[in-house]
Amino acid sequence: MSQTTTLPPREPAPVPAPPRGLGAWLRMLGVVVRLELAQRVRSVAWYVLLVVVGLVVGGVIVVLFLSLSGYQRDLGGAIFSTTIFLVMLVTSLVTPALSGNAVNGDRDGGTLAATQVTQVTAAQLVLGKVLGAWIASLGFLAVCAPFMLGSALLGGLRIEAVAIAIPVVVVEIGVVSAIGVGLSGLIRRPVLSTVVTYLVVAFFSVGTLIGFGVATIAFQSEETYNEVTWDWDEETDETTCRVTDRTFDTTVPRPDRVWPLLAANPYVILADAVPPHFDASGYPDDLLGQIAIGVRYAQLEPVQEECPEVLPYGAWQGETAEEVYERTVPSWFVGLAIHLALAALAVWGAIAAVRAPARTLAAGSRIA
Amino acid sequence: MSAPASPGAPASPGAPEPLPASPVFVDPVRPADAVDLSADGIVVEGLRRSFGGVHAVRAMTFHAKPGRVTGLIGPNGAGKTTLLLMLASLLAPDAGAIRVAGADPVRDPRAVRRAMGWMPDVLGTWRTLSPRQILVTVGRLHGLPERRARERADELIAQARLEELATRPSRVLSRGQQQRLGLARALVHHPRVLLLDEPAAGLDPTSRVELRELLRGFAAAGGTVLISSHDLSELDEIAQDAVFVDRGEVVGGERLVLARQAAREWRVRALDPRALSYQLASIGVAFDRVRLEGDVALIALDREEHAADLLQRLVAAGVPIVHFAPAVGDIERTYLGLAGGRR
Hints:
The complex is a heterodimer. By secondary structure, chain A is mostly helical. Chain A has 14 helices and 4 strands. In chain A, β1 and β2 form a beta hairpin. In chain A, α2 packs antiparallel against α3, α3 packs parallel to α7 and α7 runs parallel beside α14. The two termini of chain A are 24 Å apart. Chain B is α/β, with parallel strands linked by helices. Chain B folds into 2 domains: 210 residues, P-loop containing nucleotide triphosphate hydrolases (Rossmann fold, 3-Layer(aba) Sandwich); 81 residues, Alpha-Beta Plaits, CATH 3.30.70. Helices cover 36% and strands 22% of the residues of chain B. Chain B has 11 helices and 13 strands. Classes of the chains: A mainly alpha, B alpha/beta. At the A-B interface, α1 and α5 of A face α2, α3, α4, α5 and α6 of B.
């Protein structure tokens, strides 16, 4: 628009098609990711938020360390598992806000159309937004990395716990990013899609627990058990246990019928994916293992009360947690598959919604 | 606003047969459905698009030719923005065919996007990004390699006179600066077709002149420009062709001819206003065709020939004329004629 050069020299021939192939496709994706990060993330407020989260998580870890150090020696596992759960909690609170308005926010701002009229495809646009939100949320994992390193120095941290837990958390953050971006493509109003993303996260984190609790009672069953009595022999001063012929009816909750609800809980997925480490008495010694074993116990059918085996020295022999763990089934991959399927569905829907020229429009939506 | 056309009151008896219309319009008497889809530029045939029960575009057929600036004119709600969205490959038509630089936006949107630069009326910008970042990013999204995208961004920033703001967040730009950035964004990939929706809104006079020169140069180099605007005098200066749309339809030949035949006001000023009004009366201009506003006489005339004749007579009568020109431009006159026809 300068006075001297009214127009730059234009190619007489049509501009050649941009290069094809995977490399070019990924480069274009990279441009979208950088645009997303520059547009949404790179601000002072963002770094302040990261620092605040780092300080809060750090505070919790330090308090935990000080209070536990009197009881236990190798604190590494406990500190690490707590840190990773906190990271999961923080990202599940932040990621929906980052991703839940990625598409419809751009629509409202008129910037979506500006990208749609370029050579970038709908898939690149949506996946780029997913990656952008994902990378931004991983920042919270990064600021908590020092505490994980610290836990490694404390000893007792198992390498397999780290090698499994961190990838699971990374994937879960990606799932929330994808669901957020997907919903923002499918729902017109940014506020609504963000809220729905939060509700989806809440459904999996809290809703599955509530559902499990309610369903355990709803699916309760009537069982008929034999009564067990304890006879005390005055002469020998011995107590013997005896299963009588008398029976009674009772209602028992049936967690074993509804436990798969828990499989979709992200915290359960994380806990179940990491193989637990059992202490000398056969009990898991960190938070991950304790949650995992809780879910395994839920798989057990109700059993008729029987006379316990009495060992010679008078202790009772029950099943240890380790034995229960051994004879029940893992579920984390089912839950993860459900999450990934949902994320893929949301992304697919958003790609279809972003594809232009658009045939149908949501009522009241603007294109540009 | 045009005076009622009283048929028996020509200013100049015995005027010559009307010449063909001035070359402002797409041949107005051509049947509306005769366009060649294989032609270059923008070709639209039988286009239709509705949103629920609202028929935004009912039947649009026109050809915006390469090498020319075509104005898109119509009242609010005539379907201009919907049409531009379809041309920009963002919205699929319900029926009809579009070719932008020979490509079909429905079947091959990427070819259209390679050839087409689009500047929407409400420009969305990434508010936290600087103009340079925006232009580089858009260039990259158009498939330019990093280095070329940077060079192109620098070029366009100089062209849009945004050097001082090039690294500031674009939210600090004024409306006119945003418009200039928007135009630069539309030009990033050297398009052959430009779609502009109200590009002059918010521009200062210098920028308007620059925009006009840029569009003229663009068309002169073989580009096609379709420009939607309500600034009719601006369009009169810039556009060689015009497409009038009304209630979702391109206004067809006959209505256009009629509209253009509506009387047009000419603004006449003389050093001696009294001599002017006296001579106007003595020449025989009907009094209901003359409107006096201070020193200026506004005279409704049906043809340009009548104007030439009137001027000749006034000068011959010794009236010291200092200004004799149409009060409104061709496009404005036609637009107002159409609007008058609707009432």
